Amino acid sequence: MVFDSEKWALSFYGIIDEHFAVDSELLKLHIHRKESIRKIQVERDLGNLDIYIPTNWEMETYQNQEKLRKVMSAEVKWQALNIFSRRTNLIANSIGLPNLKVSVCVIGHFMGKCYYMENHIKYNQWTICYPKKEYVDLLICHELAHFYQHNHSEQFWDKLEHIYLGLEDNMQCTRETFQQLSDERRTNKTVFLLRYWGRQSYLKDFFDKDFVKHKTPLITPIYKDTSEGKVEIAYSSNFEIRFWQG
Ligand SMILES: [Zn+2]
Q1: Contact yes or no for 185/130 (Cβ under 8 A)
Q2: How far is the CA of 143 from the centre of ligand 1 (A)?
Q3: Top CATH class, 5-244
Q4: H helix and E strand count, the chain
Q5: How far apart are CA 150 and CA 142, in angstroms?
Q6: How confident is the model at residue 244 (pLDDT cuts 50, 70, 90)?
């Protein structure tokens, strides 16, 4: 089953069960129901994660979501740490940077943070669930570009483009496709949501605010009427966060 991340994100009301899956080049994550088990079981190797939940578990309870969240969070962290460490240092070395310290965690709403003074990059572990490997590379290149430009100035975006287009895998990529990819990554709704699900406090919020009971989607598109009809211009979320298209 290929996971339709856009569709899932727009219907997500805080519950993860066996219908949730990640099927990307970097990570395959599947949740299965299994008979004759009483607690969660895990099978893993690098890039593959299978989580088994008892057949009779009711997934719309806070207790079971919390148990799943804990296991999934720890497992995704392990996957992300291994994948990000390798890939970051491979790219860093290819542009003449030394080996860097890489760590992963849930860092507020950040996707990544660069501590250039300490040769250290932190990633939000859920970004490993990006549907495309290219988005992960873009994020890595973004953080690496901060070693050259500490702000988000025009020079920074030029540097990022330069690093990304210089990667061996991206021989076919042009300035235009690079721009397209950057926009897609920025507005990807899956990670937008998952980065919060990684924290207990947010999960509690979903239940406390009755989002789960009423199955309220946590993000909704905002439309604008134009001469070509209705156009999606932004998304609003129940977290009082907004992000704009284009
Ligand atoms: Zn940045």
Answers
A1: yes
A2: 6
A3: alpha beta
A4: 7, 10
A5: 11
A6: very low
